[in-house]
Amino acid sequence: MDTSFINSFVMIAECGSLAEASRRSGLTAPALAQRIRALELEFGVTLFVRSGRTVALTESGRRLLEQAYRFQGAVRDLYAATAADGIGKTLRLGTIFTGLSGLVPRMLTELRARHPELETNVVLGISQNLYHQVLRDELDVALIVKPPFALPKSVEWRQLRLEPLVVLAPTPWAHESPMHLLRTKPLVRYERQNWGGAYANAFLQSEGIEPDARYELDSLEGIALLVSEGLGVSLVPNWARVGGMPQGVEVLPIACHGFERPVGLQFRQGYAGGHRLADYLLERESSRLGAMPNR
Questions:
Q1: DSSP label of 86
Q2: Cα distances (angstroms) measured from residue 29 to each of 47, 53, 72
Q3: Is the pTM of this model over 0.85?
């Protein structure tokens, strides 16, 4: 059995349409239909039923889909196991949004230099969602904030950065003490439900600060823009980024030991490619993984 037939089956099942699966895969609808007929002859069952322009899985098709996902994961693991660096032919990479402003472009540059034929699919999301996508084997590796709980044995973790909290302040306020700013100025809050934002919120609570929170965002880039408009100050991790802050924003360090945001790679247990990706970043960017300049 050609493994590409299973991949076509999964794509059709997810798209619910031969036409859409054809568009995404680059194969003609008749070619896809022929692959499905071959699978139905192989297994002796009907996998799809047509309804107008859409197709729906039969009960046998639903059972096959569950196993097909496992099969695809096993095939990826086989390629990774035989690759010299453990990465294999494809990479499904998840990243938090701030990863695109610093760490991920460096990783992709290194990957392109060492693996020009590697196919990489990049998925954006928040740490909580990306964490579960790795658990469900929807991603090979994810750049996320370390979960605030013990990781299950099915995944591994490699820390890349420990990002201290800093205060972002409009330039006209930057001469004041950062702690005084947090106590007296409006706050653009880093969303508390976000794993990264939880560190900032815990620090405020530890200092007995009840801020005048006017806005709450889960985007650090968005927070910096609001601060640049003079709408308030913010308490955020000093995230890795290419270039500086928006014009009119100053980065003020504070003493925050124990409240730093840990950022790293989460990947499936035994996936050697996760360790290799972390090594690439640490080897290539070791001199740049500390605090970044304001400008």
A1: S
A2: 16, 12, 22
A3: no
